[in-house]
């Protein structure tokens, strides 16, 4: 084979391999830039601030006493995650939450694990609850706590695409298990850290939260903590988040 022909073939082979390498590298590089979906459970801060959060999806016996405690203890900053059906069944309580200046987030429509359903179902359910909450309170929600705290990367990505930030918790009061008033107080006050998001419930299933809440508030204040909403927490400090694999 003439030297010129061999040289030409070598050049062509080199070009093909190089082009192939560039083609493969493209998607890999793009994938590396894709952010892993995350759910927020606390923020990194040295300030002694925490967010008290309350999920409500059932009943009308506990929500108002919880609001009474917050008013009596002069807590003006907290975040309530409301389910759509509950909001429609108890509009006056939902309006009271709004009128007291508390932040309102979305807790979904049907109380089912989002990860068991396709994106279309998730979008439909969240849209229904969003509409219900806005209809009653005038608030268009941007924060969501999924039912049962259930999620996976696909669920978070779907919710993010809807404009939602997924909020979890770092300290779980376990109040829904009704473990005893003192156990609830101890769990919250001993586990709370600066930048914490604290999970509690104002549903009727949480039968001991009304008795525990005043002491939780008092002890956290003694420990130097101030109360803020989740949005204030997120805007005031670097976000520390759970990465879902």
From TrEMBL:
Statement: the UniProt record of this protein carries the keyword Phosphoprotein: no
Annotated Gene3D superfamilies: Glycoside hydrolase/deacetylase
Stored InterPro entries: Glyco_hydro/deAcase_b/a-brl, NODB_dom, PdaB-like, Polysacc_deacetylase_ArnD
Provide the alphabetized UniProt keywords.
Signal
The region annotated as signal peptide is 1-32
User: Which residue numbers delimit the NodB homology domain?
Assistant: 48-228
Superkingdom of this protein's organism: Bacteria
Query: Record's PANTHER family?
Result: GLYCOSYL TRANSFERASE-RELATED (PTHR10587), POLYSACCHARIDE DEACETYLASE PDAB-RELATED (PTHR10587:SF128)
> Mind telling me what this protein is named?
Polysaccharide deacetylase family sporulation protein PdaB
Q: Which organism is it from?
A: Alicyclobacillus fastidiosus
Source taxonomy: Bacteria, Bacillati, Bacillota, Bacilli, Bacillales
Gene name of this polypeptide: pdaB
